[in-house]
Amino acid sequence: MADAARRIGWGGAILYWLYSLGVFVLLGGAWLTAAAGEPPRRIAAFTWARLIREAVADLLPFSQIGGIIVGTRTLIAQGVARPRVYASMIADMTTEMASQLLFTLFGLAAMASVLLGAHGAALRPALLGATAALIAIIALVVFGQRPLLALASRLAHRLVPAAAVGLEAVDAELSRIYSHRRHVALSFLFNLAGWVASAAGAWILLRLIGVPLPLLWVLAIESLIFTVRSVAFAVPGAIGFQEAAYVLVGPMFGLPPETALALSVAKRARDVAIGAPALLAWQVMAVRFTLSRRGARITD
After folding, report:
1. How far is C-alpha 9 from the geometric centre of its chain's CA atoms?
2. CB atoms within 10 A of CB 132
3. Which residue of 17, 102, 181, 207 has the fewest C-beta atoms within 10 A of its own C-beta?
């Protein structure tokens, strides 16, 4: 791993970090597109909220759920209406998971075409099981979001009437968003481009290390790694799961275990290099937002 870090160097690392920031523009665009009606100039706000969501999920002990909560609050603080933030987040996550499923199926197809030996056959059940779990999660989100919102609204009407009004507003906004099918389709395409672009970043890293693995093989590896990370969504940053997946999946496509592990470590370093400053900036902005609201209350 030390040799891999030396080959990448600071110049290569900064190049990779800048490339990764560009990927977040695609992901922010997916969220913005899902929020049908928001002007394109909001792209910076949605990209920033998406970056914070990822940073919290990767670096803080709150897993993906915590990242989603902080990401939505960040966008609300940017002046986007609360019902639109929540509804667009649901729509964006739905298209994100649907596009990931397509990307995962590509990885499985590549694995089936490349690996015919016993080693690949031994790992197929585990990868197919992870894919089945991902499909189940996606089905739960896609088909369960509206009934769950309706159930939550009915419970809120009985327990907290004021909260029921907010849930009804989110449900109405979600219906409006899904009526704009072109926006939903564009969100899907933006998210799919985000998955592919993020996977291509690993190909750039391997090039910097000096491992000229074909781009399609790297995309296949990363699609399967992303699947494992998604299934392990309850673990912050999928710590341990990502590393084990690289060591198991990498050799199937000709990537030595030590190089696969170095690739995982380099991606972790990227997460810290981008996420830590983002979290610090978010904390400063959150404090300023809180102080400004207190000042406004005192003035009133």
Report:
1. 27
2. 11
3. 181
Closest C-alpha to 283, from 68, 52, 82: 52
User: Where on the phi/psi map is residue 80: left (φ > 0), alpha (ψ -120 to 50), or beta?
Assistant: beta
d(CA 113, CA 128): 15
Encoded tokens for 108 = 């499985």
- CA dist., res. 202 & res. 209, Å (int): 10
The answer to whether residue 111 sits within a structural domain is yes
280, containing H or E segment? helix 257-299
Domain count across the chain: 1
Query: Which one-letter amino acid corresponds to residue 88?
Result: S
In a domain, 121, yes or no: yes
Q: Are 153 and 164 in contact (CB under 8 A)?
A: yes
The continuous run of DSSP H or E covering 218 comes out as helix 215-231
Per-residue pLDDT of the chain (300 residues; tens, 9 = 90+): 677 778 888 999 999 999 999 999 999 999 999 999 899 999 999 999 999 999 998 888 776 788 888 999 999 988 899 999 999 998 898 899 888 888 988 887 777 766 655 455 555 666 666 667 666 766 665 555 555 555 444 544 444 344 444 778 888 888 888 888 899 899 999 999 999 999 999 999 999 999 989 998 999 999 989 988 888 877 877 888 999 999 988 988 889 999 999 999 999 999 999 999 999 999 888 787 777 766 655 555
What is the distance between the terminal CA atoms of the chain, rounded to a whole angstrom? 59
Do the domain assignments include residue 300? no
The residue length of the chain stands at 300
